[in-house]
Amino acid sequence: MSFISAILALGFLIFIHELGHFLLAKFCGVKVLEFAIGFGPVIFQRQWGETLYALRGIPLGGFVRMAGDTLQDCSEHEDASEEEKSRWFLTKGYWSKFAVVFAGPAFNLLGAVLIASLGIYFFGQPVLLKQAIIGDAIPEHPAAKAGLKGGDRVLSINGEKVSLWEELSNVVRDSNGKPLTFEVARPQVESPEDAWSGDSEVDDKVPTNVVSITVVPDKEITELDTIAGDTA
After folding, report:
1. 201 in active site
2. Listed residues 123, 151, 186: the one ending a domain
3. Which of 78, 111, 147, 149 could lock onto 16 through a cystine, CB 3.0 to 4.6 A?
């Protein structure tokens, strides 16, 4: 299986390389006689327009055969019309020839960047943005004593809006133990499906005092009595 995968990967790299030569040759007005993947005996071939497209038996390379790409080819077709000669590779200007030759490795480089980008996009490590939702308020900890409950969605802390758990953690961490006022939206169910399943690790690891919370049931803000929390 690994051998087949290696052959397919090599074939893809060869195809990208030769495709670069082919496309730039067409763009520069060079007549392309054959576009082949592989060497040796022909497995499949088909003529489309002026170009023969072929798949050959030895998958160790490929080639783009262009009209007038060697001095011998030019001498063998000296009687060709001026229009035909104008489409020979060797009759093109310096920059056109350079572009055709350079296009192969350039396409390999672009292909590598594209594959890497797609790999990162589809298979890269996902970054989960956890909502600022209390998964569980541990009894006897400051959050629970202040009245926070599992499922509460934190809207702001000391007037500073938060929406992600990371933002909540940063605000609590930077408070240095100072009193904090939480404004939370309290759902009708105890454990909403989108609540983060972790515990209140911010309360456990960062010493702080929860002074009061503002609960918002049914979109109405209700002030709770100030509850002095202790240090976790």
Report:
1. no
2. 123
3. 111
Q: Is the pLDDT of residue 195 over 70?
A: no
| Confidence label for 128 from pLDDT (cuts 50, 70 and 90) | low
Please state whether the predicted TM-score (pTM) of the whole model is above 0.85: no
Cα distance between residue 6 and residue 77, in whole Å: 41
Number of structural domains in the chain:
2
Q: Are 214 and 182 in contact (CB under 8 A)?
A: yes
In this structure, the answer to whether residues 53 and 158 fall within a common structural domain is no
The domain of 34 spans 2-123
The answer to whether position 129 is within a domain reads: no
The answer to whether residue 76 sits within a structural domain is yes
Q: Are 142 and 232 in contact (CB under 8 A)?
A: yes
Structure tokens at 141: 């900890």
**Sorting pLDDT into bands at 50, 70 and 90, what band is 126?**
low
Planar angle of CA 84, 90, 96, nearest 5 degrees: 100
Catalytic residue among 18, 78, 167, 190: 18
| Helix, strand, coil fractions of the chain, as percent rounded to 5 | 35, 25, 35
Q: Which of 31-35, 116-120, 162-166, 208-212 has the lowest mean pLDDT?
A: 208-212
Distance in Å from the first CA to the final CA of the chain: 57
Q: Could you give the dihedral angle defined by the CA atoms of residues 202, 207, 211 and 213, in that order, rounded to the nearest 10 degrees? A: 0
Indicate whether 223 pLDDT > 50: no
